[in-house]
């Protein structure tokens, strides 16, 4: 449950940062001097092609972000699995040592 809340908070935070950044830039793809900034001849020209180029760029970065998030999730899942195996190994060691202690007490 807390993971879902944390994820939702993270999404809201990222979305608000993107919105704030876009407010400062103006409308992307509008052309040079109109808030769209530079970024290539197509975007500098503005108009429909500039808007399309800006949209393609945004789509590309959203896709990259999704890929990075998926890689991060996979990494954390692998780390969790590794730690679970390590816990199992250490629990076996504990049991082995406890058995030795019981054997020593029994021999007394």
UniProtKB/TrEMBL annotation:
Gene3D superfamilies: Single helix bin
Purpose of the protein: Endogenous F(1)F(o)-ATPase inhibitor limiting ATP depletion when the mitochondrial membrane potential falls below a threshold and the F(1)F(o)-ATP synthase starts hydrolyzing ATP to pump protons out of the mitochondrial matrix. Required to avoid the consumption of cellular ATP when the F(1)F(o)-ATP synthase enzyme acts as an ATP hydrolase. Indirectly acts as a regulator of heme synthesis in erythroid tissues: regulates heme synthesis by modulating the mitochondrial pH and redox potential, allowing FECH to efficiently catalyze the incorporation of iron into protoporphyrin IX to produce heme.
Coarse class of the protein's main subcellular location: mitochondrion
Domain remark from Swiss-Prot or TrEMBL: Forms an alpha-helical dimer with monomers associated via an antiparallel alpha-helical coiled coil, leaving each N-terminal inhibitory region accessible for interaction with an F1 catalytic domain. The inhibitory N-terminal region binds the alpha(ADP-bound)-beta(ADP-bound) (ATP5F1A-ATP5F1B) interface of F1-ATPase, and also contact the central gamma subunit (ATP5F1C). This dimeric state is favored by pH values below 7.0, and at higher values the dimers associate to form inactive homotetramer, where the inhibitory region is occluded, masking its inhibitory activity.
Region spans: Disordered: 27-54
Tagged with keyword Aminoacyl-tRNA synthetase: no
Subcellular location(s) per record: Mitochondrion
Annotated GO CC locations: mitochondrion
Record-stated family: Belongs to the ATPase inhibitor family.
Key words of the record: Coiled coil, Mitochondrion, Transit peptide
Quaternary state and interactors: Homodimer; represents the active form and is present at a pH value below 6.5. Homotetramer; represents the inactive form and is present at a pH value above 7.0.
Coiled-coil stretches noted in the UniProt entry, renumbered to this chain: 66-107
Protein name in the entry: ATPase inhibitor, mitochondrial
Biased composition regions of type Gly residues, renumbered to the chain: 28-41
InterPro entries: ATPase_inhibitor_mt (IPR007648)
GO molecular function, a single term: ATPase inhibitor activity
């Amino acid at each position: 449950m807390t993971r879902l809340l944390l994820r939702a908070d993270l999404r809201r935070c990222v979305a608000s940062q993107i919105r704030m950044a876009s407010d400062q830039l103006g409308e992307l793809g509008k052309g040079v001097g109109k808030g769209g900034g530079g970024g290539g001849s197509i975007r500098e020209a503005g108009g429909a092609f500039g808007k399309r180029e800006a949209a393609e760029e945004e789509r590309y970065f959203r896709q990259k972000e999704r890929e990075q998030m998926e890689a991060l999730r996979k990494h954390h899942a692998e780390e969790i699995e590794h730690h679970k195996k390590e816990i199992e190994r250490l629990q076996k060691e504990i049991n082995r040592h406890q058995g030795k202690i019981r054997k020593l007490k029994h021999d007394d």
